[in-house]
Amino acid sequence: MTPLAERMRPRTLSEVAGQPEIVDVLRELLDRRALPSLILWGPPGCGKTTIARLLAGDRYAFVPMSAVLAGVKDVRQAVEEAKERRKLENLGTLLFLDEIHRFNKAQQDALLAHVESGDIVLIGATTENPSFEVN
C-alpha cells in the first residue's frame, strides 16, 4: 500500500496549498519557459521537494541530489549529462540540490558557471536562512 503522504502529495501546482502568490508567479514563469534558478527555504516536510518536482514536470529532467552525500564530482557528472540531454533530447535539466546549505563555498561556486550558462536550472532546498547559510 502506498504511504498516506505519497497519496496526498500534490500532483499539480494547482493542488499546492498555501503561498498562492508565489505559486502563481512560478506557474507564469513555467508558462513562459523562463523558470529561473532559485532557493526554496522552509521547515522539513513543507513541500520544497514536491514543488521542485512539480516545476520540473515534463519540461525538465528532474535530477535530485543531496548536498549531504554529493560532491563537486557528482555535480560535474550531472552537468555533463544535462548538456548531453539537451543536445540529444532537447530537454532541459532541473538539478534539485537538497540541503544546499551543507555545500561549502567552493562546492557552491562549482555550480555557478553552469547556472549562469543555462546548462541547468538549479533549485536548492534548505531549512536554514539562505541569507546566512548559502553563499
Question: What does this molecule look like?
Answer:
The protein has 135 residues and is of the alpha/beta class. It has a domain at 37-130: Rossmann fold (3-Layer(aba) Sandwich). Helices cover 45% and strands 18% of the residues. The chain is built from 6 helices and 4 strands, in the order ααβαβαβαβα. It has helices at residues 4-8, 20-31, 48-56, 72-89, 105-117, 130-133; strands at residues 38-41, 60-66, 92-98, 121-126. A 4-stranded parallel sheet has the order 1-4-3-2, sandwiched between helices. The protein is globular, with a radius of gyration of 15 Å. The mean pLDDT is 95.
Roughly what percent helix?
A: 40-55%
Elements, N to C (H/E) = HHEHEHEHEH
Return the CATH architecture of the domain at 37-130: 3-Layer(aba) Sandwich
Terminal CA distance: 42 Å
Compute the average pLDDT: 95
Poorly predicted regions: none
Q: Indicate the proportion of strand residues.
A: 15-25%
Look at the structure and name the CATH superfamily of the domain at 37-130.
P-loop containing nucleotide triphosphate hydrolases
Report the CATH C-level class of the domain at 37-130: Alpha Beta
The fold-level CATH name of the domain at 37-130 is Rossmann fold
Spatial ordering of strands, largest sheet: 1-4-3-2
Number of helices: 6
Radius of gyration: 15 Å
Major beta sheet, specifics? 4 strands, parallel
Structural class: alpha/beta
The global form is globular
Which key phrases capture this entry?
Rossmann fold; 4 strands; four-stranded parallel beta sheet; single chain; 6 helices; alpha/beta; 135 residues
